[in-house]
Amino acid sequence: MLATLTTSSVDVISTVNLPPTNHHGWPWQPDCESQPSPLATDPPRITVVTPSYNQGDFLEQTIRSVLLQNYPNLQYIVVDGGSTDQSHAILDKYRDHLSVLIREPDEGQSDAIAKGLALADGEFFNWINSDDLLMPGTLWEVASRCPPAADLYTLSVEVFGDDVQPYLMHNRNLSATAMLRADRYSFSQPGLWFRTKYIQDCGGIDRNLNYGFDWDLLVRYLAKHPRVHYSASVGARFRLHDESKTVVEFGKDDEDANRFLLESGRIRDKLEASLSTSLANASRLGRLRAPWNDWLVKKLDDRDSSPLVAASKIGWRALKQPRVTFTWRTAGTILRLLSRYVRPKSSIGQRAKTHH
Questions:
Q1: Each residue of 171-207: b (16+ CB within 10 Å) or e?
Q2: Dihedral-angle region of residue 319 (phi above 0 means left; psi in -120 to 50 means alpha; beta otherwise)
Q3: Which residues form the Glycosyltransferase 2-like domain (predicted)?
Q4: Structural domains of the chain ordered from first start
């Protein structure tokens, strides 16, 4: 069931239902320090899609984090795949503030986002999952600071959770070549703001993928539209919890059962058949580098072994297949291992104070 709703351009902050009295801070209360940019006097249309299924514990926070952006030219689409929890009551509560609300069974997250993308009329596009949050002022920043020549505007993302010490994920070194070759790069989808027409131009979201569809989309997008602008701002919060796909899949003891990894081979098969020869070759190299990179991470995480021995093993193995292993990631891993022999000055000072 699709409901197209009309949202007034008046201040959303004054019309969104007040949160329960025991809820404080963002996104339960507006961030008064996040004011519209004077540069955005005629702000561009921005489309945000939230796919949701039985995320009633978090859905209201997500919706409020979008609505309380107080952005006047927002198209906000929520696609619920037939939830059976309290999501229905939450959607009823906020339906008058949504541009489009779809309530019907779907084939999963990628299918839900694709439904929203099909209705998108904004200049910029992103999706915010129903357990994540936009940070205050994000939409105003995208509208006012994205250079006209930029194809993709990126912000950093804070990872958080009940048992997680918050940390930042940065979008860095993003290009189709770097991603396919498994070079040093990083991306976090909630911090990526696409040009809507370019997403449609590169083929949109592949509904047949359930785990790596964001990686697949980004590679295809950057293959045609490579100009990226990096912002130092934090634009979203990515929540880790017991039912997160990231937690469930990467928490498995058997890597062969990780559905992200299993799907990645299928994605590369598809991309190698459709992209240019140079990018297809980059992907074939990336297939070889991926297990090498995983091995480097294990060596770095092994605190029981000698760092010097580990660094030596990396260097020796790298010599056997230099085309695959001579990378900045390899060099950085060796340097990080050897740096463990360097005692920080602060530690020396602290130890001296202890002895005194």
A1: beebbbbbbbbbbeeebbbbbbbbbbeebeebeebbb
A2: alpha
A3: 47-173
A4: 2-248 (3.90.550.10), 302-356 (no CATH)
